[in-house]
Design goal:
11 strands, five-stranded mixed sheet, alpha/beta, D-Maltodextrin-Binding Protein, domain 2, about 240 residues
């Protein structure tokens, strides 16, 4: 089908949103297609991307955590041949703008900062699952800090931190950087960092397969690398892709 003058509906997780929004104008100029952003977060409940896909909401391109996308492929919701890893994303920490920045430069320093924090916020998606079900236990402080930790639903962690509802907050770095009213502290130490891959695929129900594939090809191209890097992620070079 022609890739000219059509609307491409896209659902993207929050981690890739900043880069994606930055890249839309160039793609629209180059192709004369229009991007319709249907979701900018994986979401929760009935409004989540999985729920929206499963009930057949129209969409052409989906960008989510790699494991989630692979699950969609297995469910027949995404075309397997369209599977394309786009970026690697690390977890970072933020505080309210102007607040002291705790030391998280080492595992011991991170552990101390978590214990000393009055309140902790984490996301309702990939990074939050890792912190609350793995990292806190691995550090041996889960019993000390889970009572003062809060899972943030329906918005970015940084928004809760900016309002003073949590002293420190954790989320994908690319989801923290665009939020006003917070200061980015830095990434988790390498020894306990969890890097997630975010991948794109074409929805099985699309009627504009050619345009959808073209968009994913653009997002995976060297032209898109600068925006991905600027957003706080690491682009995955096309030659590094694999098929799943």
């Amino acid at each position: 089908m022609s890739t000219l003058s059509c609307d491409i509906r896209v659902m993207t997780s929050g981690a890739f949103t900043a880069a994606f929004l930055d890249l839309i104008p160039q793609f629209e100029r180059d192709t004369r297609n229009k991007i319709v952003v249907a979701a900018t977060s994986i979401g929760t409940g009935a409004n989540s991307i999985p729920s929206r896909l499963q009930r057949g909401e129209p969409v052409d391109v989906v960008i989510v955590a790699d494991g989630v996308l692979v699950g969609f492929i297995k469910e027949g919701l995404i075309m397997a041949e369209s599977y394309t890893p786009l970026a690697r994303s690390a977890i970072g920490m933020a505080v309210r703008a102007g607040a002291p920045k705790p030391d998280i430069g080492s595992v011991d320093a991170l552990k101390r900062s978590l214990v000393q924090a009055k309140s902790i916020a984490y996301s309702a998606s990939v990074s939050g699952d890792y912190l609350s079900t793995e990292l806190f236990q691995r550090l041996g402080i889960s019993d000390q800090i889970m009572g003062k930790s809060r899972r943030i639903e329906g918005e970015r962690v940084g928004a809760a931190v900016a309002r003073g509802e949590a002293e420190i907050g954790f989320q994908q770095t690319s989801e923290l950087l665009p939020v006003p009213g917070i200061d980015y502290v830095g990434p988790l130490p390498p020894e306990v960092q969890r890097v997630s891959v975010f991948s794109a695929g074409v929805a099985a129900g699309t009627r504009i397969s050619g345009a959808a594939h073209a968009l994913i090809g653009f997002l995976a191209s060297p032209e898109a690398a600068h925006a991905i890097t600027k957003s706080g992620m690491e682009p995955i070079a096309p030659q590094g892709r694999k098929r799943g």
